[in-house]
Every structure is written in C-alpha cells, then in structure tokens.
Design goal:
Elements: H1 3-9, H2 16-42, E1 55-57, E2 60-76, E3 84-87, E4 99-105, E5 115-122, E6 129-130, E7 134-136, E8 147-151, E9 160-163, E10 170-173, H3 181-190, E11 198-200, H4 206-213, H5 222-226, E12 231-234, H6 237-240, H7 246-254, E13 260-263, E14 282-288, H8 301-306, E15 311-316, E16 319-323, H9 329-338, E17 348-350, H10 362-368, E18 372-375, H11 379-382, H12 393-401, E19 405-408, E20 425-431, E21 436-442, H13 450-454, H14 457-467
Parallel strand pairs: 10-11, 11-12, 12-13, 16-17, 17-18, 18-19
Antiparallel strand pairs: 1-2, 2-3, 2-4, 2-5, 3-21, 5-6, 5-7, 8-9, 8-20, 9-10, 14-15, 15-16, 20-21
Length: 474
C-alpha cells in the first residue's frame, strides 16, 4: 500500500474529525515505512547459497554466494553424522579468503559409497549458512598421499600421532600421563599401527611424558615398551632438570638398545638432521628445544619446564602446522623474535599448554594465523569440580577472533558436536599438501579415570593454577 493510495481514500472527507483521522493514519504509516527502511538497511543477512550454483566436479564442491564469505564443506558417509570438515586450498591463503566463488576439495573419496555433504558459507561476525544436504557417489578415490596428525583422546594431557604421506612412517609426539599408556597403546593397535619410527616427549612433565614409561614397574610397560621406536628425539636440557622427575629417569633407563636417541636443538631441520627426514616431501623444523635463547626464568619451575618444550613446524606442500607441547607466552615471544613472521604462518596449530591463558598469546596467534586450532582438553578436566571453568575460553576467543575453527577432544561445533555431549573424539588434521580437512571419530580406547590423573600433574599443580594462572605449568 502506498501513501498516495492512503491519501485518495480519505480525499472526500472534510470534517475536522476526518482530517485528524487522516493525519494520524498518514503519520503512522510514514513512521512504519521509515522504521521498515531503517530495519532493512541495518540488518546484514548471511549469504544464502545461490540457487542452482552448487555442483561437484571430481573431488571438488563448487558454489557461489551473493557476497564474500569463507567456505568449508562438511561431509560424511552416513547422513547427518558429519565427521569431516574440508577446507579450500592453502596456496595464497585461499582457505582464509572471503570470496563469492568457492571451490573446496574433499580428500576422503570412497568409490561406490554415497557421500552426503553441506556447503558452509561464513561471513565474519555472522552465523554460518548451510546449504541443503546434497549427496553423490564418488567414482574414484583421492589420488594424492595424505599426511595425518591425530590428537589422541587420553583424558588429560597430550598425545599426537603423525603418519607421513609417502613413507607412511609413524611419529608419536607425547603419550599423556602414566595412566594414559593403555589409551595410547589401544588406539595404536585399533588403527593397525605395528611399529613407531620416531617418538618424542616435548618436555618432562608427566602429563606429556608419563605414558611413555607407563604406570607399571620401570622398564616393564608404557608405550615405549609396547612400541619401541627406531628413534627417540630428546633435548639436552632434560638431563639437567631430571632430579625429581622419575618418569624421565625411567625413560632413559628403558630405551631399547635398538632405539637411537637423537638430541634436537633450535634451528635443526630435516634438511640438516637425517633422523628428521621421515618423508621426502615433509620438512620438519625445530623452532624450540630446551631453554630458548635469552629466556629469563620466571621463578616457577613448572613454567620454566613448559618453556623448554620442543616445538616443531611441519611443512607438506602448501600446508604448514605447528605442535609444541606446553610452550608458554615467554617462549612464544622468543620464537617470534627469532624467526621471520612469514615462516611462522600456519594452517593448523595445536594450542600449547592445554589452551590455558598463560599460553597462546594474542601476538603469537595473530602471527601464526591458523585456520584450524586443536585444544587437547576435555570438559571433565577443566570445568568443575576442578574449579577451572572456562579455562580455555581466552584461547578459544583468540582463535575464533581471527576466523579459526576450534576443535577440542569433546567439542567440534562445526560438525554439530558441542561440548558436553558426553562423547570424546580422536581428532585428525589431514592434508594432501594442497588443501586439508579435519576428521573426528568417537574414541573407543579406554580413558584414564580422573582419580588416576589426580595423582600426577593435576593434583600437584592445582594450587598453582588456582592462585597464579599466568605462571602455572604442567
């Protein structure tokens, strides 16, 4: 209805009441019209998928949006069970770019099986928009070899299994606490791992190193006993702070004669260290190992040990990622000062120190600019009753603030798996060196009880975290 039509309908009325009624109606209509226009101009709707534009070409999903947006594709082989998140190509940071035309490769094609997928469009600051569920049946498998880095669910602590793309060599970084050894061993057995080519404990805290030697008698168990590696990477500083670190002392005495112990130092790489050449197409670079140059101890032993963590950067084609134990803000700053910013930018980042606020600083996150962040943490450990509610909130906010997707052991929002669901996941970063994706699987390996974990790192450091979260350490 227009204002001119409103005026015509009242044109024949000449009484004062008629004029007054006419004026009121016109005023109200005009106000509604202005309010409607204001509302339309102030609301920015997320971009709908352009009808008819969604299509599949080979292993690529392509579509357009009516404005610039970031793109992902979530998919699975069971309708509605979303367990894959695929991202665009990493070259020239297409994976981060907000554009209108989208091209996302899928890396897990299974010929003859029906694949269900949704194109996901995200405008910064707006909720994601999902296309209707689509499906197709791949006719051929993905052809390029894949590098996989899996965050193994072990309850509390870190454990990450890397599988190289060409050689298929296995590299285990950390093994959780003493009671996590069976979790890691079971996971490896369930995934047909028969041998480890390399193993590393980033630092001497037991929530990273304890599972290497396990909870049984020294030398009789642990991941080291079940899967003696060809190479064990270490750092010389651990030998100097092993007093009071019985797990590390046990580790040294339990190394098999067939295992080569290789000391890593900052600046080494697969280019100058043969033992790091696990695959001809994967470059491994040591960003930190032991005390960083110029590091000033902060006075709390846990923090000082955290900052000795071995930090490794992996490069496969156009894709880079960093895994670095419990390195805190101090070590992050020294790494930033020692390397060009462009050499630190990554697609994937394993948040250090369990995502706690004394690590993963704003400047560090902004230099890394990851599209994906993993946090090895669970609701059961950092929320009540341990009085650490919201402990990973600041790290999550920083990562999301630069547009990164965050995956936690019990939280994968992008795959409709919110924290608190009661399910735990093994979460994998998978790349062919061109693009990449995240895959989750429900964990079925045993998980150490919280009571068992409290006998280690959590119990000893609870007071330090509760009273001084900026300097606490595991």
């Amino acid at each position: 209805m227009s204002t001119s039509r409103a005026r015509r309908s009242y044109a024949g009325r000449s009484t004062a009441a008629g004029i007054t009624t006419h004026a009121v109606i016109v005023a109200v209509f005009a106000a509604l019209l202005v309010a409607g226009c204001a509302k339309k101009s102030s609301v920015v709707e997320p971009p709908p998928v352009v009808p008819g534009a969604l299509r599949v070409e080979g292993n690529r999903v392509l579509w357009s949006t009516d404005r610039a947006a970031r793109a992902t594709v979530r998919y699975s082989y069971t309708s509605g069970s979303w367990d894959h998140d695929a991202y665009p190509r990493a070259a020239n940071r297409e994976d981060r770019a907000a554009v209108r035309d989208h091209d996302v490769p899928l890396l897990d094609l299974r010929p003859g099986e029906t694949l269900y997928y949704q194109a996901v469009s995200e405008v910064p600051g707006q909720p994601a928009v999902y296309s209707p569920v689509q499906s197709f049946t791949p006719s051929a498998a993905s052809s390029r070899p894949l590098l996989t880095s899996t965050m193994i669910h072990i309850g509390f602590g870190d454990s990450h299994l890397l599988t190289m793309p060409n050689t298929r060599k296995r590299f285990l970084i950390d093994s959780g606490g003493r009671f996590a050894d069976q979790s890691v061993i079971t996971y490896l057995q369930q995934h047909n791992v028969t041998a480890l080519d390399a193993m590393l404990a980033t630092h001497v805290h037991e929530d990273h190193l304890g599972g290497v030697v396990g909870s049984s008698a020294p030398g009789a168990g642990g991941v080291l006993g079940a899967f003696p590696p060809a190479v064990f990477f270490d750092s010389s500083v651990k030998s100097t702070d092993s007093t009071g670190k019985p797990a590390y002392v046990e580790l040294l005495s339990s190394l098999s004669p067939s295992t080569q112990r290789v000391m890593l130092s900052r600046g080494q790489s697969s280019g100058n260290t043969p033992e790091l050449r696990l695959d001809p197409d994967v470059v491994i670079y040591v960003l930190n190992s032991g005390v960083p140059p110029g590091y000033q101890p902060v006075g709390y032993e846990g923090t000082n040990i955290n900052n000795e963590s071995i930090v490794l950067r992996f490069t496969y084609g156009d894709v880079d990622f960093i895994i670095g134990g419990d390195c805190e803000n101090e070590a992050e700053a020294i790494i930033q000062a020692g390397f060009p910013p462009a050499s630190l930018e990554v697609e994937f980042f394993k948040a250090t120190h369990h995502g706690l606020p004394d690590a993963n600083g704003a400047s560090w996150v902004n230099i890394l600019r990851p599209r994906i962040g993993f946090i090895p943490n669970t609701q059961a450990v950092w929320d009540p009753p341990q009085d650490f509610e919201g402990a990973i909130g600041s790290t999550v906010a920083k990562l999301q603030g630069i547009g990164a997707h965050v995956y936690v052991i019990d939280d994968a929002r992008t795959l409709d798996r919110p924290r608190g669901s009661g399910r735990q996941y093994n979460v994998s970063f998978v790349t062919d060196g061109i693009s990449y994706e995240v895959r989750v699987e429900q964990a079925t390996q045993p998980t150490p009880s919280l009571t068992a974990q409290e006998s280690g790192c959590i119990a000893s450091d609870t007071a330090a975290h509760a009273h001084a979260p900026a300097t606490g350490g595991h």
